[in-house]
Specification:
alpha+beta, 7 helices
Length: about 240
């Protein structure tokens, strides 16, 4: 699976290789300065357990890693919607990957070099992830969208009210606003998702994209039951 980027950057999206690990770690340092984020043992575990679910966007000319996405398949019935990131990813090792029983592709990470955001890299990673979901005939993609901009509103808004404001395009969130444009719907708000994240104050929106090729009406109905569901709402740029 390989996707060319029709943008200023001549980049390619593909599954990761072992020689990508130093580049991914370097990318982590730029995206999450001062944090360890992913380590080699975790990345090696991802490749061993579910290589197709780990993607990079690389510079076609230099081979440098520009963006990275990581995911695994889970059986949603094994979890609660309020569970933190570490439970859905087995503390980042993905050893809970369950392709035999799972129908949910869980998005554990998407990150883009801060200097290259807005050039289509994230969108192409999400499209590759949707393509994988269709190929494997999985029901959906779910993920925790950390509310990256919430810290600026924490004194005046609850995480739920902040999430609604983002959905209604009254507030821009660097993570959730982008994911809404990628066709995701918000199902809930999770407290303590990433407990040590100062930007989100530990809060994340539980988001979902449904694979229409395999979904049944009941799956759509459950999504619409969320208080955050907005039908035919176009997210506008702020």
């Amino acid at each position: 699976m390989s996707t060319r980027l029709p943008s200023k950057i001549n980049a390619e999206v593909r599954p990761i290789r072992a020689d990508d690990i130093p580049g991914i770690i370097s990318l982590c340092e730029r995206v999450y300065p001062g944090s360890t984020a992913w380590n080699p043992a975790q990345l090696e575990s991802h490749m061993r357990i579910f290589p197709r679910g780990q993607l990079v966007a690389e510079d076609a000319a230099t081979g440098n890693v520009l963006a990275y996405a990581a995911g695994l398949i889970v059986n949603w019935d094994d979890y609660n919607a309020s569970d933190p990131w570490r439970d859905f990813t087995d503390r980042g090792m993905f050893t809970n990957h369950d392709p035999d029983n799972g129908r949910t592709l869980y998005g554990a990470e998407v990150m883009v070099d801060p200097a290259l955001q807005g050039q289509g890299l994230g969108a192409k990673l999400y499209e590759a992830r949707r393509e994988l979901c269709r190929e494997l005939r999985l029901l959906r993609i779910r993920a925790g969208a950390r509310l990256r901009g919430y810290h600026a509103y924490a004194d005046t808004m609850s995480p739920q009210d902040y999430t609604l404001a983002v959905i209604q395009a009254k507030v821009f969130d660097p993570t959730l606003s982008f994911q809404l444009r990628q066709g995701f719907q918000v199902l809930d708000v999770v407290h303590g998702y990433l407990r040590e994240d100062p930007e989100s104050r530990g809060n994340a929106a539980l988001i979902e994209w449904i694979n229409a090729a395999v979904a049944e009406p009941r799956h759509i109905d459950r999504q619409r039951e969320s208080r955050f569901f907005v039908e035919n709402f176009e997210i506008k740029k702020i």
